[in-house]
Amino acid sequence: MFNNLRQNIEQYVHFTDIEFKALTDKIVVRKMKKRQTFVREGEICRHVGYINDGLFRCLSLTEDGVERVEHFGVTGEWISEYPSFPTQTPARQTIEALRDSEVFLLSYDSLQTLYDNPKVERFVRLLNEAMSSENRLLINEIRHAVPEERYRLFMSLRPDLIEQVPQHYIANYLGMTPVSLSRIRRRMLSY
Amino acid sequence: MFNNLRQNIEQYVHFTDIEFKALTDKIVVRKMKKRQTFVREGEICRHVGYINDGLFRCLSLTEDGVERVEHFGVTGEWISEYPSFPTQTPARQTIEALRDSEVFLLSYDSLQTLYDNPKVERFVRLLNEAMSSENRLLINEIRHAVPEERYRLFMSLRPDLIEQVPQHYIANYLGMTPVSLSRIRRRMLSY
DNA sequence: TTAATTTATTAACAATTGTTAATGAAAAAA
DNA sequence: TTTTTTCATTAACAATTGTTAATAAATTAA
Fold first, then answer.
1. Which residues contact B173 (CB under 8 A, 6 or more apart)?
2. A11-24 core/surface letters (b: 16 or more CB in 10 A; e: else)
3. Is the pLDDT of residue B146 over 80?
């Protein structure tokens, strides 16, 4: 049941069976249908989730009420709303399942209890450091790339998503119009 | 001497005088001249620094050997290379003082020792969570903004830097040419 | 101080992207 | 199945940005 989760954690710290069980005892397994939401804008995100199997998108609404796709979460990744989850404040984003999914939930309160074990604190610190490293790289790649380059980067970083996610969601995620993405794809065929 | 540093830390966790002294005992104060480097590309970043007074830029080189400004660090902020510092691997960026500066250095090894106190671990976790929240916001603002909007965002987020940093560094940081930034500024005057 | 270098602005042209609208294909709902 | 909705592509035009080059101002070095 929790084999993949255990492998994910052991990348960062080693847990004994007892320590791992202390963690899994707090987990609630949730099966989600396509289009169900993990958290909605304005709600407080009460859980962090390990995606045991699934596909999610995080989206926000601009002032004009236009959807903005900000993140995709796939099997084997952690998902939650930042800063809503760590600070328990209202979420800016909505997180929605793009297909039927299964997530392992840890509530904010459970996690605070688990922090009594410094190994858990260390695990989350290391997870956040890895995330920060990734984010810093991403920020600069994006900032210095025109839409075509962003799509090329996306293809190289997330080839799995090209197959799974509707193209207009990818276009939106990359900060361009579906029309522009379609043109870029056509241009790339002729190289 | 360490008043500002203490205030910075107390935003996240409360340290007793003894705990704070344990930390400052590990600190090395470094005065840096303009253009001196904190770490260079290819080196391992051995320290994290609290900028007690100063101004820094982080830059990398593209494949074509072109400089890319990726970050500015100002007084009161922490600076180091990610992932070089947390993983002790070669740095991708160079960090350079833009004016005479003073930083409080903590070495990687000292920090590992300090982690024996779970409060330090917690402080760094919270610092990273705050950084992750910021980065996620930034990623999406950037991804969905054209150069002019990026400059407007930069003005609202970092008005202090407009004064202090040469304009072509800001243009580079924002992923546009100095020519384009100059045009944007002119356009904005006529609104 | 004088000379050399760096920096910001402006102009002209090429290239890419956004916008709007139309079409056909694919997927979902009735 | 039939109908409706969603999705990807293409075209035409407007707007913005990149590129290159020239100039003047400001800063730095000699």
1. A143, B57, B69, B70, B71, B72, B154
2. ebbebeeeebebbe
3. yes
- CA–CA distance from B128 to each of B4, B28, B138, B158 (Å)? 19, 22, 15, 20
Per-residue pLDDT tens digits for A92-111: 999 999 888 999 999 999 99
Does the pLDDT of residue A151 top 60, yes or no?
A: yes
Model confidence band, residue A191 (pLDDT cutoffs 50, 70, 90): low
- Whether chain B has a CB inside 8 Å of the CB on A162: the answer is no
CA distances from residue A167 to A156, A163, A171, B20 in whole angstroms, order as listed: 16, 9, 6, 52
* Chain C nucleotides with an atom closer than 7 Å to a protein C-beta: 7-12, 16-21
Q: For residue B191, what pLDDT is reported?
A: 53
Of B180, B189, B142, B172, the C-alpha closest to B69 is B172
A163 versus A44: the higher-pLDDT residue is A44
DSSP A90: B
Say whether A135 and B132 touch across the interface (CB within 8 A): yes
Give the pair of three-digit tokens for residue A61: 């609404």
Collect all residues of chain A within an 8 Å Cβ-Cβ radius of residue B121.
118, 121-122, 125
B107: nearest Cα among B30, B164, B174:
B30
| Other C-beta atoms lying within 10 Å of the C-beta of residue A64 | 5
CB < 7 A contacts with chain C (nucleic strand) = A 146-148, 175-177, 179-180, 183-184; B 146, 166-168, 178-179, 181-183, 185-186
Protein-to-nucleotide distance from the CA of B91 to the C1' of D19, whole angstroms: 32
Residues A97 and A36 sit within 8 Å (Cβ to Cβ): yes
Q: Tokens 């236009």 appear where? A: A66
Between CA B19 and C1' D14 the distance (Å) reads 63
d(CA B94, CA A138): 17
Q: What is the pTM of this model?
A: 0.88
Calculate the alpha carbon distances from B71 to A77, B3, B9, B173 in Å: 27, 25, 22, 7
* Contact assignment for B133 to A82 by CB distance below 8 Å: yes
What CA–CA distance (Å, rounded) separates A139 from B96?
20
* Whole-number Cα distances in Å, B180 to B151, B172, B176, B186, B191: 11, 10, 6, 10, 17
Q: In what order do the strands lie in the sheet with A78-79?
A: A28-32, A101-107, A47-53, A78-79
